């Protein structure tokens, strides 16, 4: 390796490692801040927290890498231009392409590293972190309960309530509980105006204190006939206060790293996604086929057929209803209207299901193409940052930092926008995943050409010179006529 190549690589790598570590730290702290509510008051050990941070670091690394490449390329080449080192190299007959050649190879290498991370390390980190987050959330079930819907996380109980309030958010309003501990269905139902959850750190029980409620239990014997069940007794009573002790020993530190969710789209490698997509598409096509067959059967379209011309009655009017009596017309119209309304109602009821199934399939499809597109972001952002740094001729953390943030925000927003459109089926999965690359690539080409030709970012003289020349000609003609 020549001295010039070593010097250029050193000028790039020193700011790269600094910026990469800073950005990685910021992203990890953001993840930790978003998950802070899951950690608070759970009595987690330091080992569990450090493991969570490690998985978060592995997840953030592929996102921090392109930002580091972009910022360090602007800083390093801007510093070389600011210190007239590029000018000295050019005067010695060394072209810009030759100067940045080692950095181009390095950008290719970083894109390859980013691809390896996205394909192997990132899915593993998501798998471990997501399961850990869910298990930590369950460690103190009082914080996991969500108002307005049935909560099934607590074993043997289904709990629903309207509101959760109080400083510790352990007070409940309008509580409904299905006790399933007898394994005989919803035979035991408890309602209460208010409730309070009491859970002590280290205790294997969570106490639920209910106030001003009603208790009902149907004493059905398991396996008895319906006639006998009708004769079985039932008990009900009102209460001022009722206490339930729930065993929550399953939510211990030993279960924090259990893997209960393993098939999410961002937990799979490219090979696994490629194997999973055909199965999902077959299921989706089967769903569409079943809906089409139901629609075909409901409107009885198989009864519509053509008669041969020789069998058509010449006296039959083309206006079909005019061939029937008035009372038959009403019957026909009412039957047709009823079938149309029923068909439209069925389609509306399946609209949400259809949309969710299509969206679920799109997520896997988008993830497959986005892994490849995002791995090339290091190369793309290098070809934006490197020429931009040589054009602005400014090193350090000031202007380069502002430009890097603006460029990456544009890239990230465009990538997210494309993925959202593809998720809603407004774009194909491959178009939505590559949208940011398609938009930013012309910018990279433009900046590279301008830097290679040793021109500024914009040549304002080429824009204003023809305008000023036109005005000069106009004024000169007026003077001659006078």
From TrEMBL:
Q: Where in the cell is it found?
A: Cell membrane
User: How does it sit in the bilayer?
Assistant: Multi-pass membrane protein
Output the InterPro entries linked to this UniProt entry. LptG/LptF_permease
Q: Name one GO biological process term.
A: lipopolysaccharide transport
Specify one Pfam family.
LptF_LptG
Per the record, the domain of life is Bacteria
UniProt KW keywords = Cell membrane, Membrane, Transmembrane, Transmembrane helix
User: Principal place where this protein is found?
Assistant: membrane
What cellular component terms from Gene Ontology apply here? Answer: ATP-binding cassette (ABC) transporter complex
Report the protein name in the record. Permease
């Amino acid at each position: 390796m020549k001295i010039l190549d070593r010097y250029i690589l050193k000028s790039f790598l020193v700011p790269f490692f600094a910026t990469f570590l800073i950005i990685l730290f910021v992203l990890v702290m953001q993840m930790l801040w978003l998950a802070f509510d899951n950690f608070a008051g759970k009595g987690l050990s330091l080992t569990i927290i450090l493991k969570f941070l490690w998985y978060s670091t592995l997840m953030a690394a592929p996102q921090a890498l392109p930002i580091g490449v972009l910022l360090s390329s602007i800083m390093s080449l801007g510093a070389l231009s600011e210190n007239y080192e590029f000018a000295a190299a050019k005067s010695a007959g060394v072209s810009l392409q030759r100067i940045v050649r080692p950095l181009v190879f390095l950008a290719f290498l970083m894109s390859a590293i980013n691809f390896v991370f996205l394909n192997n390390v990132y899915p593993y980190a998501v798998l471990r972190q997501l399961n850990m987050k869910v298990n930590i959330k369950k460690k103190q079930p009082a914080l996991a309960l969500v108002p307005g819907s049935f909560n099934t996380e607590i074993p043997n109980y289904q709990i629903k309530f309207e509101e959760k309030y109080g400083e510790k958010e352990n007070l409940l309003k309008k509580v409904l509980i299905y006790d399933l501990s007898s394994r005989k269905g919803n035979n035991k139902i408890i309602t209460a105006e208010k409730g309070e959850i009491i859970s002590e750190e280290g205790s294997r029980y969570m106490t639920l204190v209910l106030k001003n409620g009603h208790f009902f239990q149907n004493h059905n014997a398991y396996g008895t006939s319906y006639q006998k069940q009708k004769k079985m007794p039932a008990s009900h009573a009102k209460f001022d206060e009722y206490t339930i002790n729930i065993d929550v020993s399953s939510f211990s530190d030993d279960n924090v790293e259990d893997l209960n969710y393993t098939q999410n789209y961002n937990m799979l490698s490219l090979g696994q996604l490629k194997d999973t997509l055909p199965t999902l598409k077959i299921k989706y096509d089967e769903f569409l086929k079943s809906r089409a067959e139901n629609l075909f059967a409901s409107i009885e379209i198989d009864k519509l057929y053509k008669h041969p011309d020789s069998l058509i009655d010449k006296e039959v009017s083309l206006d079909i209803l005019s061939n029937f009596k008035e009372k038959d017309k009403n019957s026909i119209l009412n039957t047709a209207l009823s079938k149309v309304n029923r068909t439209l109602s069925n389609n509306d009821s399946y609209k949400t299901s259809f949309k969710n199934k299509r969206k679920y399939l799109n997520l896997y499809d988008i993830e497959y193409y986005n892994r490849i597109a995002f791995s090339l972001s290091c190369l793309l952002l290098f070809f934006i940052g490197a020429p931009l740094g040589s054009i602005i001729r400014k090193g350090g953390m000031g202007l380069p930092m502002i430009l890097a943030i603006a460029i990456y925000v544009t890239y990230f927003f465009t990538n997210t926008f494309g993925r959202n459109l593809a998720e809603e089926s407004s774009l194909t999965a491959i178009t939505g995943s590559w949208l940011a690359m398609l938009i930013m690539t012309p910018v990279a080409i433009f900046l590279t050409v301008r830097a290679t030709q040793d021109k500024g970012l914009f040549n304002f003289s080429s824009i204003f010179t023809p305008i000023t020349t036109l005005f000069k000609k106009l004024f000169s003609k007026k003077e001659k006529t006078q």
